[in-house]
Design brief:
The protein is mainly alpha-helical. Helices cover 54% and strands 2% of the residues. Helix 1 runs antiparallel to helix 4 and helix 3 packs antiparallel against helix 4.
C-alpha cells in the first residue's frame, strides 16, 4: 500500500508541475499583484516537482505533509478562482478564470489525487504491528522500537528474558 500512495502522490504532483510549467508563459498577461502570473505558475511547478520527488525518495510523515500542503493548496486555489473573482490579493495577481479546459482538469485531478494520497500516507506511515519493522524504512535495528527494545515474543506474548 505504501508504494501505491507514493506513486499516486508523485504522479499527481508531476501532472500539476507539468501543466503549471507549460502554462506559465500564458499567465504573464495576468494583471495585479506584485508577483507575475508566470512566476507564480513556475514556482508552483518547481515546488510540486520537488514535493513529489521528496515523497518518492523518503516516505516519511513530514514529506507526506509537505506534499499534502502543496497539492491541497493548489487544488483549493484552482477551485476557488473558478468560482470567485477575488481580484488581486496582496502580491498575488487576479487569477480568476471561470472556464474549464483539458489541461486545467488534468492539473486539478492530479492535485486532488496527490492531496488524498498524501493524506492517506500521512495517516498511515510509521504505523505497524508492535515489534515489526517500521513501515517507512526507518533506521531502527531489528528488535528495537522508538520507545525501546521490543517486549513481545513471536506469538505476541512476553518475550523470555535472555540470560548470558
Amino acid at each position: 500500500m505504501g508504494i501505491l500512495l507514493r506513486v499516486l502522490v508523485a504522479a499527481g504532483l508531476a501532472a500539476d508541475a507539468y501543466v503549471h510549467w507549460v502554462f506559465a508563459p500564458d499567465m504573464a498577461y495576468v494583471e495585479g499583484g506584485g508577483i507575475g502570473g508566470d512566476d507564480l505558475f513556475r514556482a508552483q511547478a518547481v515546488v510540486a516537482a520537488l514535493a513529489g520527488l521528496l515523497v518518492l525518495a523518503w516516505a516519511r510523515r513530514w514529506t507526506y505533509a509537505v506534499a499534502f500542503l502543496v497539492a491541497a493548496s493548489a487544488f483549493g486555489a484552482v477551485v476557488l478562482y473558478y468560482f470567485i473573482d477575488l481580484g488581486s490579493v496582496g502580491p498575488l495577481p487576479d487569477m480568476y478564470e471561470p472556464v474549464w479546459y483539458g489541461e486545467k482538469t488534468i492539473s486539478a485531478v492530479g492535485e486532488g489525487v496527490a492531496a488524498l494520497a498524501a493524506l492517506g500516507g500521512l495517516l498511515t506511515v510509521g504505523r505497524s504491528r508492535p515489534g515489526a519493522a517500521p513501515a517507512d524504512g526507518g533506521d531502527q535495528s531489528d528488535g528495537e522500537r522508538a520507545d525501546g527494545p521490543a517486549t513481545e515474543g513471536a506469538a505476541g506474548g512476553p518475550r523470555p528474558e535472555r540470560r548470558d
